[in-house]
Design brief:
The protein is elongated. By secondary structure, it is α/β, with parallel strands linked by helices. Strands 1, 2, 3, 4, 5, 6 and 7 form a seven-stranded mixed beta sheet that branches. It is an enzyme of class 3 (hydrolase). Its main location: cytoplasm. It holds the Pfam family Maf.
């Protein structure tokens, strides 16, 4: 059974490796990732994972995995920080407060059946000093990341509390992914 990873994220590739899985092909789906007007974060991240999966061609003998992660402050979706100004804004929003990190994974089995699961985790950061935000931005590790930070990097030192899936916060919830792969017939130990 062959596996296709529909993602260019090095974190998703690393996380699949933790399951002992190496994709046979990696393809980055090209879709519009803009939220729809009034779309809730939960609906958005599920739709993104499903659209990414549907955007990649798959052979009959292939299982496909796609995922998406978003950070939500209330109903507000914080996508990938495009530049330092946006990252600063995101970090100011999550400073000292709880926020949700939602990670959806969609697996399409060899028979074409798609299954999707959602992991919803909560993270609380300390209240940031302006100098801490600037120092973090200078590391570059949060650039292009949902919410403007990477939990697996130096941002982890700012976490005062979290609940949920650490791998989901990183970008691919392993529990949900493992179960979806097994239900799709992918051989896991």
């Amino acid at each position: 059974m062959k596996l296709v990873l529909a993602s260019s994220s090095p974190r998703r590739l690393e996380l699949l490796g933790r399951l002992g899985v190496t994709p046979d092909r990696i393809i980055s789906p090209d879709i519009d990732e803009s939220p729809r007007k009034g779309e809730l974060p939960r609906d958005y991240v599920l739709r993104m994972a499903q659209e990414k999966a549907a955007a990649v061609e798959r052979a009959d003998d292939e299982i496909l995995v796609a995922g998406d992660t978003t950070v939500a402050v209330g109903r507000r979706i914080l996508g990938q920080a495009g530049d330092a100004a946006e990252q600063r804004k995101f970090l100011e929003l999550v400073s000292g407060r709880r926020h949700h990190v939602m990670s959806a994974v969609c697996v399409i089995a060899a028979d074409g059946k798609a299954r999707t699961k959602l992991s919803d985790s909560i993270v609380k950061f300390k209240r940031f000093e302006a100098s801490e935000i600037e120092a973090y931005i200078a590391t570059g590790e949060g650039q292009g990341k949902a919410g403007g930070y990477a939990i697996q990097g130096t941002a982890e030192a700012f976490v005062t509390w979290m609940s949920g899936s650490y791998s989901g916060i990183m970008g691919l919830p392993l529990y949900e992914t493992r179960n979806l792969l097994i239900s799709a017939g992918y051989p896991l130990g």
